[in-house]
Amino acid sequence: MKVNEIMEKEIDDLSAEGNKILSKALTLGDDMKGQDLSNVSSWVTRLGQLIRQLYGTKSQQFAVYSSALETHAFWTIHSNYHDQISQLVGVATSIKHDYEKGLLNNIRSLIQADIFSDFLEMGEYLLSEGYKDAAAVIIGAVLEDGLKKLCERNGIPILRENGRPLTIEPLNRALSTAKVYNKLIQKQITTWAHIRNKAAHGEYDEYNKPQVEMMLIFVQNFTSDYLT
Record's superkingdom (predicted)? Predict the structure, then answer.
């Protein structure tokens, strides 16, 4: 099952389970107990994990989620005390809406773009201070992570059969073969990956600062063109 299919199933399951829990609460004359309460705990945990993964902890969705959890006597759930569950069901419903409308990809892209931008700014700063080697490692790491994200979006495996992660060049070949980008981009990535590897292995005399500056410009443009 592909990542998107797993995500879709989890979103659907959490929405359906939330409505099921709320319907149950509306019929209870006494507090929810036993397996029913255990199901609520599992649902709340899974929903929190999904919100963190999709929106981050600074999002409105996470704020609503956290606020609901802070409700006095949160685990007291019955027909006259279920507003906290209603809030969480509302969050689950909004996630399902965002997914069905194609908004989640945009949200995740914006979050990822911010992360890439922060690290590239760090690389740019290190270059300006004369630390070309540290800059090359950071810029190369952004490139590698970007290729992984691009593979995930296009249903391309990022792990070997033995479970070990693929490195830049195999990812690069797979993306080019899948026509995600052309051969020229593939060759450029191979060049910059070579510099990153030299830096990572301490072969600092094998490249110079102007080359790292060109590498930075390429990765900035690449992330802008393919990951936003």
Answer: Bacteria
